[in-house]
Each structure stands twice: as C-alpha cells, then as structure tokens.
C-alpha cells in the first residue's frame, strides 16, 4: 500500500476511535477509572468478588476479541485479491478444527467455574450473622426493622428480646423524607426481605447487587459485609406501579459502635417516625437527610408544563 494511503487509513482509524469514545460518553477519567469497565467501585466484600469476576471475564473477552479481529484483518490484508487467478482451495485441517473446538469449551468451563463459585460466595448465608435487618418494601417506599438476632424466617417467631436494643426499632420513609438504612462496616449483615403488596427489588448500585422483594410467603434473604464508610443510593429495581421510579432510599455505612449507638438512640426515642430517624442520625454525627437522592413531589396537579 502506498505511504499516503497508509497515513490516510491511520487518520481515519484514529478519528473513528475518538468518535467511538465520544459517542459512548467516555471521558479520559472514565477510562482511567481503574478499568472498572463501567462498574462503580465496590463497597462490600461480595461486590469485590463480583468485580474480580467482571474484570477477568472482560479481559478474557477482550483477548479473544483482539485475536479474532486480528485474524480477520490479517486475512483481509494478506489474502486480498491481487491477481485474477483463482485462489488455491484448502479444506480439512484437522489440527485446526480440533483446536477451535476444544479451546471454546475450555473457555466456557473456566468461566462457568468462576461464575458458580462467585455466585455461591455472594449468595451464601452464614449461621450467625452479626446483625439482621428486615427490609419491608411497599408501594412506594421502604421500612427498615433492626434486630441483632437472626430470626427463623417467620415474623411471629422473631425473638424481640434478643434485639440489641431490647425492642424492635424501625424507620419508615415518607413522601417527604428518604428512608435511610444504617449498617455497620466490617460486620456480616443479613437482610430479610418482605413485601406487603407487589414485587419490588432492593438495589444498591455500589453493592453491585439487587434482589427481588417478593410478597409472602417468600422472604428472600442475602448477606453482605460493607467495607467502606459512606452514603450510597438505593433504588427499587422492579417496576411496581405509578411511583416506582421515586422509590429510593439511602444506605449509610458507619462504624460498628456508631451503628449500635444509632439503634439505642432510636429505641430511647421510642418512635419510628422520620423525626426519630433524623435525631438518631445526628446522635452519631451523620447528616439527618439523604444526600444521594431526594424526595419527589408526588402531587401531579402541581406539575408545570415544563416538567411534564
Ligand atoms: Cu418499584
């Protein structure tokens, strides 16, 4: 190929690559962002395992992709038409056929193994979690019941005496106040889900995890161990009706001591309203209102033409 044509082709390729990045909404900082390939930084032990699987799978896919693209382009260039002679016809390369049959099977088996072991780790329930929180989803908000005692999966058999505060404490979100789920860092937290109406889904993007909240008699359960203090948005991820998109909450990962102070303060206040939630948060030096999401105006008659 003449030099001028090479330069033209290289320029075209560069422009196409830049355009792809721009059109995909990628910035230099995105690419630089620890090569997460679109995922947020994980903040639980379980999420870290899932991220490792994601990285390894994506890298494996890229290696295979580059090899396939390389072979395609190499063939296009190496075997392009240069004469009018009919090209040499080949068939039956048994070694190659065995190779490209066995290698994909090995790749699938390896991916399957690591996917299964990671899934087992993420969904594993321990015998004695450090704390248990019941998450109640309803149209269109959340309630969090705190107890340090795992219960047997039945609301009626829950041993309230075993709760750290001596009684059940809970917080419930309202249309005006975002509910906040407070959890201790470094401890195993068991979440037991309940729904009072339709199917919802508990989703915290920074946990890289979501789990459907299904009406009785199914109480889905899962566990996580948070690794990083912080505020993380939570959402309902299952279309559940008119205000589904506004069914948000916030997770606060705090020190274990602060978590226990939070529960004790809630119990002392003897109330489960949003004012008690705010006072208990202030008691542990946390801001009283959510800052990762905000309440929405549910009064549709007040909407202006511009917001419809
Ligand atoms: Cu929903």
Describe the structure.
The protein folds into 2 domains: 28-81 and 90-123, Helix Hairpins, CATH 1.10.287; 131-295, Cupredoxins -  blue copper proteins (Immunoglobulin-like, Sandwich). The radius of gyration is 27 Å and the shape is elongated. Helix 5 (256-269) crosses helix 6 (274-283). The protein is built from 6 helices and 10 strands; from the N terminus they run H-H-H-H-E-E-E-E-E-E-E-E-E-E-H-H. The strands form 2 sheets. The protein has a 5-stranded mixed beta sheet. The protein has 308 residues and is an alpha+beta fold. Residues 150-165 have low confidence and may be disordered. Helix content is 37%, strand content 20%.
Tell me the CATH architecture of the largest domain: Sandwich
Strand content: 15-25%
Helix content: 25-40%
Strand order of the largest sheet: 3-2-1-5-8
Whole-number tally of structural domains: 2
Query: Which class best fits the helix and strand makeup?
Result: alpha+beta
What is the rounded Rg?
A: 27 Å
Number of helices: 6
Average pLDDT for all residues: 83
**Bound ligands:** copper (II) ion
State the end-to-end CA separation: 58 Å
CATH class of the largest domain: Mainly Beta
The H/E string reads HHHHEEEEEEEEEEHH
Counted beta strands: 10
Please tell me what the overall shape is. elongated
Give the CATH H-level superfamily of the largest domain: Cupredoxins -  blue copper proteins
Largest sheet: 5 strands, mixed
The stretches of 5 or more residues where confidence is low (pLDDT under 50) are: 150-165
Looking at the structure, the CATH topology of the largest domain is: Immunoglobulin-like
């Amino acid at each position: 190929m003449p030099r001028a044509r090479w330069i033209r082709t290289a320029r075209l390729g560069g422009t196409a690559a830049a355009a792809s990045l721009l059109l995909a909404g990628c910035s230099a900082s995105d690419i630089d962002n620890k090569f997460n390939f679109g995922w947020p930084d994980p903040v639980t032990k379980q999420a870290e395992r899932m991220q490792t699987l994601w990285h390894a799978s994506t890298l494996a896919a890229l290696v295979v992709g580059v090899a396939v693209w390389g072979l395609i382009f190499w063939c296009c260039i190496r075997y392009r038409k240069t004469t009018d002679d009919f090209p040499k016809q080949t068939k039956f390369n048994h070694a190659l056929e065995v190779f490209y049959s066995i290698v994909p099977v090995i790749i699938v088996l390896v991916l399957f193994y690591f996917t299964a072991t990671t899934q087992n780790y993420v969904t594993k329930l321990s015998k004695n979690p450090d704390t248990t929180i019941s998450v109640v989803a309803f149209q269109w908000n959340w309630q969090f019941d705190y107890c340090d005692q795992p219960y047997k999966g039945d609301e009626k058999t829950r041993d309230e005496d075993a709760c750290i505060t001596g009684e059940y404490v809970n917080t419930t979100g309202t249309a005006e106040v975002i509910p906040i789920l407070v959890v201790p860092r470094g401890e195993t937290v068991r979440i037991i889900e309940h729904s009072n109406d339709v199917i919802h889904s508990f989703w915290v993007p920074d946990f890289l995890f979501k789990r459907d909240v299904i009406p009785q008699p199914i109480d889905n359960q899962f566990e996580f161990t948070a690794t990083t203090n912080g505020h993380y948005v939570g959402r309902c991820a299952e279309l559940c009706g008119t205000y589904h998109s506004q069914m948000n909450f916030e997770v606060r990962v705090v020190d274990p001591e602060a978590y226990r102070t939070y529960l004790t303060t809630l119990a002392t206040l003897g109330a489960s309203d949003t004012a008690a939630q705010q006072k208990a948060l202030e008691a542990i030096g946390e801001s009283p209102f959510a800052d990762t999401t905000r309440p929405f105006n549910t009064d549709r008659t007040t909407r202006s033409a511009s917001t419809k």
